[in-house]
Amino acid sequence: MLLLLLGIIILHVVVLVLLFVSTIVSSVQATMILSIIFSVLSLFLFFCQLFTLTKGGRFYITGIFQILAGLCVMSAASIFTVRHPEWQPGPDYTYGFAYILAWVAFPLALLSGMIYVILRKRE
Fold this sequence. Notes:
Radius of gyration: 16 Å
Order of helices and strands: HHHH
Number of helices: 4
Shape: elongated
Strand content: under 5%
Structural class: mainly alpha
Number of strands: 0
């Protein structure tokens, strides 16, 4: 159980770091900042639920907020994908590393949200 808890915390921190790094450079900052807020809120809720949830309970609220964070990342990356040629005119434009980090953070955020929904609290 402790190993699973450690894995969830590490996965959550990795998602947060990827989101922070991709927000610094991204031009779709509003949605990325919203995803960071959802992700930090879900980490805070996870720790609150860890100490207050009854035995056998599930972390639904934490999972919902983390899934919302993943959906915000997906929408920001999708908007940037569609609108990038208009924002960066010229024949040799590139997406950059923040774009790739956002697409990496998207499935990780959804995965951690699903893990939170499935996870039950033990003794």
